[in-house]
Amino acid sequence: MFWNRLRKTDKLIEYIAIFKLNSANGDPVVEYVYPYVNNENPSLRKLRNFVLPCRHKGFISEEYTLIFTDSNGNVEFFVCITLPISRYIVCVSSYLPYFELLHSLITLINQEHLYKKENRFNIEVILKELHQNCDVATLNISSPSNLTKLSIQLPDAQVQFVYHRHILEYYNTLSIGNWILIFESLLTEKSVIFYSSRLQRITSCLLASLSLLYPLIWPHLIYSLLPSDCIDYVG
């Protein structure tokens, strides 16, 4: 659903950003970025503005996806996770829709508490040791405390890629009647707005509905999450 809108890149991951929620107003503050990205970088600035729409407050950790489109129609993907107890948000940026890989990395960072200041050097190790061999992404890290191994099959650029987690969320959330209504609306190029208190649910339903259009594609802008004061822009 995105292969005709991808930017050229030789990297699996562009950067990893960690935000700390301001204790006074709840705004996300950039605390760490690797590889280094200037605070005024358009990608990071956009991420900072949209990573927590409407100052969303949740009591459980959520993994969700952001998609940004540039002036040329090319896309950039972010998989993020909110960590309400520690007040962190972690995001992984990529120009490629390798959602299984992004999910695996964000899960590793969360489970091993790599978002904490004393553990962040491990993020640099991960990105340096992450390699692509043919259509497989591999990660092998040995340390005194543990051994981390990942092997992720990457989708073929010539076929449609459907991420099963998104489809499962879509299936469990919406009725068949809504499936048909959404599909019909997308075919006729009408705007569709998903509303939920769960960020994960919104972005999963959006990506699943777009993937089910195959072999057709959605030619317009995609807003995976929007603050409420921006809803009028999609009218």
From TrEMBL:
Database matches in InterPro entries: cDENN_dom, DENN_C, DENND1A/B/C, Tripartite_DENN
Any one cellular-component term (Gene Ontology): cytosol
SMART domains linked: DENN (SM00799)
Record domain UDENN: where: 12-235
Gene3D superfamilies: 3.30.450.200, 3.40.50.11500
Domain of life: Eukaryota
Short name of any one Pfam family annotated for the protein: DENN
GO BP terms, alphabetized: endocytic recycling; endocytosis
GO molecular function terms listed in the Swiss-Prot or TrEMBL record: guanyl-nucleotide exchange factor activity; phosphatidylinositol phosphate binding
Protein's recorded name: DENN/MADD domain containing 1A
Organism for this UniProt entry: Schistosoma japonicum (Blood fluke)
